[in-house]
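#struct-pred
JK: can someone run the complex with zinc ion? inputs below
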Amino acid sequence: MSIQIRKFDSTHPDFKQQLADVLAFEASEDEAIDRSVQRILEDVKKRGDVAVLEYTKQFDHVEAGSMQALEIGGEALQAALAQLSPVRRAALQTAADRVRVYHERQKAEIGSNGFSYTEADGTILGQKVTPLDRVGIYVPGGKAAYPSSVLMNAIPAKVAGVQEVIMVVPTPNGVKNELVLAAAAMSGVDRVFTIGGAQAVAALAYGTATIPQVDKIVGPGNAYVAAAKRRVFGTVGIDMIAGPSEILVVCDGTTDPDWIAMDLFSQAEHDELAQSILICPDAAYLDAVAESVNRQLADMPRKEVITTSLTNRGAMIKVRDMDEACEIANMIAAEHLEISTENPQQWADKIRHAGAMFLGRFSSESLGDYCAGPNHVLPTSRTARFSSPLGVYDFQKRSSMLQVSQGGAQTLGKVAAELAYGEGLQAHARSAEYRLK
Ligand SMILES: NC(=O)c1ccc[n+]([C@@H]2O[C@H](COP(=O)([O-])OP(=O)(O)OC[C@H]3O[C@@H](n4cnc5c(N)ncnc54)[C@H](O)[C@@H]3O)[C@@H](O)[C@H]2O)c1
Ligand SMILES: N[C@H](CO)Cc1c[nH]c[nH+]1
Ligand SMILES: [Zn+2]
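RT: done, structure tokens with the ligand placed:
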């Protein structure tokens, strides 16, 4: 099996259009997914647990007599943790500790006490920060199991002070991943249901007889999960659209081509719809990476997923220079951007849009996926132009606080009444005027 990754040259007159085509999902595929997700959401909203059980049978091949049978209790979670080998447990603990330290630092940086200030007349204005009451975390599980995603979702929620974290994770053919369950125990998840896809998102968003409705749903998933989150937004909060994984490598042509080929594989192996792109000013280097891709493919267990992903959604782009590479990187706004160059900071300074930036040859994206500390739940499909990594801030909300003194009511009352009359809103005006002396 060999891979032909499409090659592009930024000097080609149609390059902008070619790039747009590379970045777009097949529109028809997207619409078909959205239509089927809409049906599933409506059905779960109407029929609750019964519909979730049916879809779980259809998509995950798990037949359960009741939704309770799909809940994994606290004891089973603790047992999974206890049964890990010492080496694996230590690795999980190290990752969890590093993720916690990073998010505690983030919480300290963004603040959780709000603020207030007092004006000369005694009026107090400010903002109160409150953790969300109950959140749903989606942990993907269709093609691979993601213990690391349990940590990345649950730890910032608990650091923020969320009372109740409800996790959903599909278990295709009923196969439970012990490391996923152990990670749930380690990160303090409160309840776990083995359901996935749009039906799990619907159950969390609308609530069923068994699954409590949450305030917000966070976490990554495949295109069905992403479409479902998009549709339930408004009924519940969502963090972002974190769909099929993406990696963009900007390289100056001096990193070992085998390293870069493997970095491209690392995201391609997630999903047929994952996207891996390499940009470099050196055409010979792109050829060397293409050769390495085909040489190393033979050793990859997930060959078929990698091949489909790289063939359909992969790209190699020859650019004039590194400045142009950064411009294109900003247009792509990838989930992960590796800047594999000498002095990477000078190029990072030119990047405005990326979910996470990995600077220098030793910062492989995979370290961020598991244990470096920053969150691996990141915006995909160019939404890094306006979205941020999952963080403590996603599990907090803010309320404005106003305590107007009698003196303040005099000054503000006149201003408010004048503007209210201007808007034709009598009650607003009088409500302010009643408090004037
Ligand atoms: N952006 C991030 O932070 C991040 C992190 C980890 C993983 N990921 C991505 O998460 C995704 C995980 O995908 P996955 O498939 O392994 O697991 P998943 O849990 O996201 O999806 C599995 C579910 O998809 C549903 N499904 C599958 N085929 C369907 C169909 N034809 N119709 C309706 N529903 C269907 C099923 O309900 C199934 O339970 C990958 O794309 C990976 O790249 C992203
Ligand atoms: N790369 C994924 C985010 O796109 C996260 C992950 C988990 N495990 C391996 N990788
Ligand atoms: Zn990954």
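RT: quick notes.
Residues 404-433 form one domain.
The pocket of L-histidinol (ligand 2) is lined by residues 146, 148-149, 245, 267, 335, 369, 376 (CB under 6 Å).
JK: thanks, will look after standup
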